[in-house]
User: Which sequence fits this backbone?
């Protein structure tokens, strides 16, 4: 498999022309949230902002009080009905973070927009991923071993013991879906046509093992897709930057929002060729 | 056109005498907000505070929960009726940020105060700008190319391709109104009497292409007018400082509130002659 | 008049013995708040925390949503009735910040506790200050020139032109009340017995001329009284530290909460003899 | 008694293997909160996050608006009934912070989970501690002298004058419960079997004498138990790290959340052998 190197990842960084404006550099839709998890969609939104999204709209159940960044756009919903997201302008989406039992309805509402989408957390259910495959809508899935096992019908322990095998199995089960199997290290796989692509991340560390870091990653990958990267490139670069940010800031006791906040500096360091 | 230079801009910085107090250095009214955009008026208020306003009052629909700076004064409104802003004490205003469909009513309520006003975002509609012209109330408009096209009845692409032409057209259509056409670079124009004044900003960068940076700018320009600068000077200095702040902090992934928070240091650097 | 020097002020700093605990280093009651001014009591609480209070309780109308520090104790009230503050444990109080039309009732409720009290902002009314004089409860008043004029029945301009005279007049009108007349510089006066004491602050700068800095000061002085300093010492040291903090951090565009947050470092510098 | 040394404490630090994930490094339940004390459970949650918990769930009365970290999981409750905490997944708990009159019911609800638990603040009542003894559920109690006196039926002054004696008395009254008697210095005692273990902390300072620092400590100790440390080790290491954090950041005016935020750096310094 490909080992993600600073040089290769730096080459993927989307440029930003002199006439860039907030509408041209990528708009992201984040969809999630539930009474128990009011922070998860916020962390995803923060990840998207920090990864360079020009605009981030967060769709969430209206009864929640989300402590969103001042820079995000709110889209409170009475329900995740079919037309709930009509009128949202975005080039990519991330769905599932903190959605709990509402994840199914949320993912279906997002699917109707036919945007490249990151499926995370509670949206990582076989039937939802299959729906993306069936509809031919580009998707990235970001399971941890437990979620991967749920998708495969296996055991988390087996996934963690053989991550490359598990990533391969997921990629084969869900053709054209980019698989990001989180762990130490994170493994990526993707069945584009005939062959199977593999990549293994080289950044990240155990201090990142805490709640919310996965939500941030979902927002990062969505922002990179919104900026124009194909899903495979967005996933590889997103995972790499996320881990790089963790390596630069990471101490046990790190909070996930700090990981997001460290992204711009990590990205700038990568761009300047300071990462080895 | 005039290229904005550090020396010329430093000369415009309003002084602050030894007996200055919060009521003497400029009071700003910010008017905006809507269910989807609860951050926009907050960012404008923050911009005004950071640009040196002594007091910032934020008028907004009472049903919103605005996460205002502790230092702002709240003016929650049942509606944007004629007398809604009676009793507000300010020397300048900024209106439209995040106001959505309420922008029209908000701008009319602000106009009744006859204060020098920045019209931004949803308040950038031809009939509202014309009302300021007709009433002889000083105004600054801060459109991006899409909003400029709406004001001119043209296309955003054409505006972006020929920003000097578009700024000129706006300045001629709205005499005495200072035009700030945002872009890379931002162009300013103003038809004072017979002639037309032009300026081109020399600060700013594409990392600032993200949601909320325009809201901050509106607050900055309003604060400089409240401090006593004529609209043309406030607009030029405001645009310059805003871009300078972005150049000092700006990395892709910057959040707009960070741009505001970097203003005092940028201003101090300009004042000390450290900017070239 | 006495010019406040670093050496004299350092000598006033309350020590903190090895067995200090949160109940022994000073507990402060902050009373204020109103729909328009939800930040003012929060800033006063922050000032008290930052000046070393062990516990800070904030009493405020229950319908407000105050964004208090996590470390403050809430005391939401249905009304400022006589018994509203029964059970509050504190050694000093600050009242009036952001209280608007409720200041009168709030000040009377606080007076019933017979604690050394800072009267600020909307509580600066002649009848309220007189009540403290009459009851023999130690008080510090912190008017700006406009509030001083209201207390004296004169004009703000005259107060600002002759601050020493105005401070003297206030001290004579309200015997034993410590007068802090805010300005550039801030002047203090106090009629203890026969004679009149005067002091002039040597710290502070015009960048501090912005909303909320006075609220912070009220909390600082209350915390120093709660720590055991007599009102005259607490007022002089509080004004000095507040201005020192502003001199160390102060740039135009400073927000009042930053002034509070800079207090511990300013205090430590004063304690270490690093201030000249 | 044992004096806590950097070397001994560093040896207790739980490692974090390469395949660590948020579910494997320790999940903490925080239970508390009341109308007056909305910050206390938040500070405990922050302490747990900063001490390395992978997940932190906060159970609190549903009518409160807790300003939780984005990374925490919410568990709002209609009441502290028997089944209120069913389904919460955690390896350790902290209960009592800011619970006021609800502490009894909260502690009983937590006891039903049979997790190693820190009993703090309002949960420090003899009958509650006895219930843990009776049920054989591991417990750490963290009284200050006033709370210790309440547990012992004595006077706070006597406790503070003879902390070793008071700690011994508590340890004997509550066999197998780890006693953390907060003060200057903090003393720990524990009756494991026949003998009595004693320890005296060597970190911390009087600047930490302010509201909320104890809430942070409760969360820290719970997180270390959730990471797998036995209660005696978790209590010693937690107290040591908490004080070390205070020594590195502590100035009069420190806020408790800053103490929590400084924990990761303090822990890293201890791990690298930089603490003497």
Assistant:
């Amino acid at each position: 498999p490909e080992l993600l190197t600073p040089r290769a990842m730096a080459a993927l960084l989307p440029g930003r022309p002199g006439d860039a404006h907030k509408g041209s550099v990528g708009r992201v839709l984040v969809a999630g949230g539930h009474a128990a998890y009011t922070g998860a969609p916020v962390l995803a939104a923060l990840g998207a902002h920090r990864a360079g999204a020009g605009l981030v709209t967060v769709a969430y159940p209206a009864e929640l009080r989300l402590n969103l960044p001042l820079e995000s756009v709110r889209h409170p919903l009475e329900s995740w009905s079919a037309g709930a997201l009509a009128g949202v302008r975005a080039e990519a989406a991330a769905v599932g973070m903190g959605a709990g039992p509402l994840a199914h309805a949320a993912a279906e509402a997002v699917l109707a927009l036919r945007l490249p989408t990151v499926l995370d957390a509670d949206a990582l259910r076989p039937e939802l991923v299959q729906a993306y495959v069936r509809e031919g809508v580009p998707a990235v899935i970001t399971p941890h071993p437990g979620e991967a096992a749920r998708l495969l019908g296996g055991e988390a322990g087996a996934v963690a013991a053989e991550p490359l095998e598990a990533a391969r199995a997921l990629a084969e089960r869900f053709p054209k879906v980019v698989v990001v199997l989180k762990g130490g290290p994170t493994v990526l796989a993707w069945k584009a046509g005939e062959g199977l692509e593999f990549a293994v991340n080289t950044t990240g560390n155990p201090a990142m093992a805490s709640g919310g870091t996965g939500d941030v990653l979902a927002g990062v990958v969505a922002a990179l897709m919104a900026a124009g990267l194909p899903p495979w490139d967005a996933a590889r670069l997103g995972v790499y930057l996320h881990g790089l940010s963790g390596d630069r800031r990471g101490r046990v006791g790190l909070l996930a929002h700090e990981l997001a906040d460290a992204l711009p500096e990590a990205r700038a360091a990568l761009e300047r060729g300071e990462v080895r």
